[in-house]
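Cross-posting from the modeling subforum.

Setting up a comparison between two proteins and wanted a second pair of eyes on the formatting. Protein 1 (sequence, then structure tokens):
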Amino acid sequence: MDDLIRDYHLVLNEREQLPCTYDGLRRARSLSRVRLRPLWADSLVDDAELCVDEAFCNARRHTRSGLPGGTVTLALYATADGPLYIDLGDAGPIRPGDRPRVRAAAPDTDVESGRGMFLVDSLAAHWLYVARADGGCLSLTLLTPDRAPVAVRG
């Protein structure tokens, strides 16, 4: 991993463990805005913040991280010429084998929930959920050709 970091200049490498509460959600959104705004246009910052919000809410609702005392880990990272990566680590699903998914049917706009992964899938270039021994991680990649990070001055 050290070789990887030496070979690619990271313009962003942020990681924070947060309580899986509404206060933690506010902190995750704020951290995303504060760290991304100096590097990217507002449109990407808005998309990233929405993805963080939806991923966090899904972790709170569907994983053991949402149980009392639970936490999530938010990681934001990017290289100077690469995409923006967002990872949200959780304590694993409440129901064994449960994983984030996009519903096959179009989301019902008249209900309060059920559109989170549809939105993430619409905004992210790629996403996947990786099960781990200590939980899981929803990994998102956000990039479009016109959204390269601001050049690093050096």
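Protein 2 (same layout):
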Amino acid sequence: MSSKTDLFLIAIIPPNPLGDKIQQLKLEVKEKFNSSHSLNAPPHITLLSPFGMDEELGDNLNSLLEVFAQGFQTLEIQLNDFSTFPPRVVFIDVKKSDPLMELQQKLEETARSKPDMFSYNYHEREYHPHITLAFKDLTKANFRKAWKEFEDRRFNEHFLAGDLSLLKHDGEQWSVIKEFSLGT
């Protein structure tokens, strides 16, 4: 008997009203540049890219993340203007602070060390924290137009991240299913 594989990701979600402000930017991108794919998830900073996991391991994942999150303190997240991953991605740039980079690195190491739990086989690459505004369905022509609009625009905000969010894909969109408090 085979079990169902679910798709998850682990992220930091900006609190409201900042989250709503970022959501408005995503809606602006949809209206002006015909790119709506980023609306399939709440505004977030991905810490661990989407991974598959057998649904029967859900309790194990929750226990692991509960313990993992307690090993880190609340961290300040600084959002600094906009940037791109050409030819399709426009995003809000996130400052690479030491606490954020360590959190992400340790989370990825944990996933890679538990192949029986995490179907996480991405190539190792430098982590670039960001909040996506447009990707996948943004055409190359609209990418150029969007970047022309955002490259000189300013966006400087910060927030305290107090937890990790586990998101699950339901076949159409990502939703937060559980949050894990950082620190004790």
